[in-house]
Specification:
Largest sheet: none
Distance between the termini: 56 Å
Number of helices: 13
Strand content: under 5%
Length: 313
Amino acid sequence: MNIRATSARVAPNAPWRGRSFASLQRRFYWYCLWPALVVMIVITLLPTAYLVLTSFTPLDLTRPETQWNFSTPILQYELLLEDRRLHNSLWVQAKLSFWTVVLQVFLGFLFALLLNMQGGLLQALRTVFLIPMVLPPIVVAIIWKVLYTPDISPFHWFMEWLGLPVASLITDPDTALMAIVIADIWEWFPFCMLMILAALQMMPEELTDAARIDGATALQVTWYITLPYLKGVLMVAGLFRLIDSIKAFPLIFILTDGGPGTVTEVTNFYSYIQAFNFSYLGYSSAITVLLVGITLVLTWAVIRLVGWGERVE
């Protein structure tokens, strides 16, 4: 069969005839993108829309007739202003997010500087430091539950052997939140370390070499050369950790269950209590919408600080 002749007969009626290559390329990209968009709409946008609609109803699982009751659409949001327990949970969340994000980025930066040095032992340690990050969050919570339980904790046995017994950190109102912070830092500072280490390895050596030739010390090189170079990466790592810190549920659920009292009850855990302990799904949805709004505002603020669309090096 003559292929050229066949192509000549088909080409005049081909749907792409007369279109530019750029136009065909855009159509091809859209065809590839549509399946992902459909999946995103189904698993993200539709549940979000249902969440927002539910927040305008007094939905209570014990009263099914309240599911689509929009007679008082802003009542749940008015309750948010009067709920002191919610206000306390926002303050607890702010403290937890601040300390975990700051310390994770700081420790990630220090360990990235260490692991960026050449050495066989340091190369092997990179994999070791990543272990906490790849463990399931529930496993991490159980590990720290054991460490914080005096009767079975190797840490408490060691302190008693030294003659310095330590009370359980998760049962003391003064130390319970600190115990959550320590566990969260241990789990997630390798994430920041990995991002910063990747940026350090892409950093041109000419910058540090020129500074050392001019007589700069290691501290001066770090402060005036390395930190400005890593500014964007540090901010992005902090943004990711800030968003994840607002979802700190497994550690709190396993270690303290929001206690003692409400000292470790963050906002998403309080929303969980309203939904599954008291069956107030409408009010829980309003709390969740508030939390999503706060997260979006904080994300926008950090992006503006870093620079939207700017290249992060």
